[in-house]
Amino acid sequence: ALPISQDASLTFVGEAPGVQEARDGIPFVGPSGKLLKMVASKYNIDMTEARLTNATLCRPGDGQPPPKSAIDCCRPRLLHELGTANSGGASTTVVAMGNSAALAVLGSDGITKLRVGPGRRSPFTELGDTRIIPTVHPAACLRQSDMFPSLVTDIGKVVTRREPWTEPEWTVL
After folding, report:
1. What is the pTM of this model?
2. Spatial contact of 105 and 94, defined as CB atoms under 8 Å apart
3. Rounded distance between C-alpha atoms, residue 59 and residue 110, angstroms
4. How far is Cα 135 from Cα 115, in angstroms, rounded to an integer?
5. Which residues make Cβ contacts (< 8 Å) with residue 5, sequence separation at least 6?
6. Contact 98, 76 (CB under 8 A)
7. Cα separation values, 100 from 78, 96, 155, 173, Å
8. Strands 51-54 and 10-14: what pairing?
């Protein structure tokens, strides 16, 4: 397993521990973690310098995504954890992988729409100027290979510094 940095400027947030993660107590040690590490290495992202965590620390017994109530209950822990990484004043980047992670750090889901643009700001004050990059979860790419290009593109946004994107307001006349 990779050593996990507890004070990192880059954090990857997943949904909940998978079978291997729950057994080992370390996020992203299963197949989706291997895929994430492979994609990150293509952008020269050192995963030993990144923090790996999940929106929730337990998974429902039925293997389904965590319910919104569980994400809401775990949000204070996650925001504190992410805010700690930002305590040095350095701007932090958080990659929210999947709907559960997006819901936890952005307060909304719909990953297909959220992933548009170079990143977003969280509405939660604990995250300050943290740049949030929503993307599909690597596990989704393992189930549906057509999602893989989205993951690759979005991980590339980590090394590209641009102002966070906000959806334009449209007026129809």
Report:
1. 0.85
2. yes
3. 20
4. 5
5. 48, 49, 50, 51
6. no
7. 12, 8, 18, 37
8. parallel
Runs of H (alpha helix) within 28-159: 31-42, 68-85, 99-106, 111-114, 138-143, 148-156
Taking only the tens place, the pLDDT of each residue in 54-106 is: 999 887 777 788 999 999 999 999 998 887 654 543 348 999 999 999 999 99
- How many angstroms separate the CA atoms of 120 and 109, rounded? 13
Taking each helix axis from N to C end, the angle separating 99-106 and 68-85, rounded to the nearest 10 degrees, works out to: 60
CA-CA distances (angstroms) from residue 75 to 78, 135, 162, 168, 170? 5, 19, 27, 28, 32
Alpha carbons 81 and 60: distance in angstroms, whole number? 22
The span from the CA of 144 to the CA of 107, in Å, is: 25
- Taking a C-beta distance cutoff of 8 angstroms, is the pair 78, 104 a contact? yes
User: 3-class DSSP state for residue 54?
Assistant: strand
